[in-house]
């Protein structure tokens, strides 16, 4: 075990790193953050901020010399940096699991080859692969770049072979995945933690709603049957074990009807880190996903994931800032709302600036309150 008083390293200084750092400092750890942004959100809470590129050898050497273990807060840290660090100190999650999650081709192939439920897809390395996919994949479909796509970026809905080819060319023929567009009932996710000893624990399943490809709202617990929730947790835990994953992992699912009208869960993708849809755990669970990340990194026993209060989390994007200012009174006048801001200096449309979580005696009450706040925030100023 790595006990409090030790120093932990973090590659990446965004909002997920900020919340990890806050949890670690609260538990008695020091944290060194490496991030090239001098104003990175995690740097505000870190013991030390190495303002450097993720390839910077001096910064990596400082982590190896000063830290007991290292983790990441985003899915695309450089593989060579992780490999170098892993030769000196524990890196959790490991490079192999990250490499699979970083690349949709490897990710989808991993799901299929290991028997996990996944929708129809085809790997696209050239235009001829698009032609060959016709039949197995029907239009409309979704074309996704294999790497560096998130929050709707690197994704395009295509309604024909011509549209798929045009998007592929526009993306300069980078490797892609062509996915069947599915008739979704819901999107849900499971956030879990797995230790180096194989111990595993999952948070309650969250129900997710998106807007413009970005997670808008997470409702916990999800409004699905206990049987489906158990299936989602079971699939997620088996997936983490198959990956030999160590750390916090999010598994996103589509809930669809099969040809016999039976509800079925299909894995969409995984995120090798804490996840937006798990933010509700900060206020509504005995242990937050970020404290669990610290525990997994340090080899400590996991905390209880029991949800003590139904909750709805809503992302705050830069769109609702007026003149770079958020009217926080609109949120805080709701006594059961908890506000979390990420310390980012500039509000931009589509940029995640914070979130709020509304607690309630039941999910529907929390949902109604969350929607009421959202409506106030998105009303034009002259309508207030």
Rg is 21 Å
Outline type: globular
Unreliable segments of 5+ consecutive residues: none
Distance between the termini: 54 Å
Tell me about the biggest sheet?
9 strands, antiparallel
Number of strands: 17
What can you see in these coordinates?
With 384 residues, the protein is α+β, with helices and mostly antiparallel strands. The chain is built from twelve helices and 17 strands. Strands 9, 10, 11, 12, 13, 14, 15, 16 and 17 form a nine-stranded antiparallel beta sheet that branches. A four-stranded parallel beta sheet has the order 3-2-1-4, sandwiched between helices. The chain has a four-stranded antiparallel beta sheet with strand order 5-8-6-7, with helices on both faces. Helix 1 (15-26) crosses helix 10 (289-298). The radius of gyration is 21 Å and the shape is globular. The mean pLDDT is 94.
Produce a short descriptive summary:
Helix content is 30%, strand content 27%. It has helices at residues 15-26, 57-66, 79-86, 95-102, 104-113, 127-133, 161-170, 226-243, 281-284, 289-298, 329-332, 363-378, and strands at 7-11, 30-34, 48-50, 69-72, 121-124, 141-145, 155-158, 176-180, 184-194, 200-202, 206-211, 214-220, 247-257, 263-271, 311-317, 337-341, 352-359. Strands 9, 10, 11, 12, 13, 14, 15, 16 and 17 form a nine-stranded antiparallel β-sheet that branches. It has a four-stranded parallel β-sheet with strand order 3-2-1-4, sandwiched between helices.
